[in-house]
Amino acid sequence: MLSLHTNNAALSAQNSISKTQSNLSTSMTRLSTGYRINSAMDDAAGLQIASRLKAQTSGMTVAMRNTQNSTSMLQTAEGALDEVSNMLIRMKDLATQAADASSTADDKTAMQSEFDALGKELANVMKNTTFGGKNLLAGSEAIGEGDDAIAAKPGTLSSKMTFQIGASASETMEIDLSTDLKGLTDALALATGKYDEAAPAEGDAPVAGTELVGTTDGDGVNTPTANATITLLATALDKVGTVRSGLGAAANRLEHVYNNLANISSNTKAATGQIMDVDFASESANMTSNQMLLQASTAMLKQSNSQSSLVMSLLQ
What we know:
This protein has helices at residues 8-33, 44-98, 105-128, 178-192, 226-276, 280-305, 309-315; strands at residues 130-131, 134-135, 161-164, 172-175. The protein has 316 residues and is mainly α. It has a two-stranded antiparallel ribbon. A two-stranded antiparallel sheet has the order 3-4. Strand 3 (161-164) and strand 4 form a beta hairpin. Helix 2 (44-98) packs antiparallel against helix 5. It is rod-shaped and about 140 Å long. 26% of the residues are buried.
């Protein structure tokens, strides 16, 4: 039907142009950003799922850093205890040598001097080993006396440790070495603390393991000899080994946690990419198709607009 007021062909062409322009704009936006979903209008459900996966991935990335930091902290403590173990071995060697009858008084005096120096450094390691400015090893009770004493300052290992190893609140790992560390500090106090004859109450045994040279005080009480010190140092070495074993087991567990997080994170990122990322091959084809449709629609709109001129030819 020829009409001046209504041109159905032109209206159809205009509607086609509008849709094609919208699709072309969407394709160009996706190709320019690299994302299939650039707003909730593109895929509301997909955006919600992808956002949740992205939050999970981000949390796991932080958790992976947590495990690395925690492992470094445990390795710092374990390294310090390795040095403590080396010093205790040397102190035990000195006690073993001093307990032999072939050692003269002068020999024992020299050994005692080295023994005392090692005890001071051992206390220094226990007191000053820190990670991130926080003490790691000092127990809840002081070790030793005077300026060389280990301060009664709880360290990180002195209480239960909780590591955040995942993106959710429930993903935690607890390590409790407080009992083992307390046993270690008690053993070190016996093996390296200075003997103070005024400290023991009547009937109590004096603090042992400090003097390599056996002497007798005015009351006839013998200070511990080098032979007694050997056993105390051996006990302290066993306690060091127990704490180091716990630290190593915890560090190994954290390493497995890290590997598992890396695996989960990689697969979660892949899932997010499948939802969010644009397929360039497919979207490029869509853009080309829309460009051709836009050109064809524009040409047809021009042709449909020329149909109204046929009305004038009928009126001539």
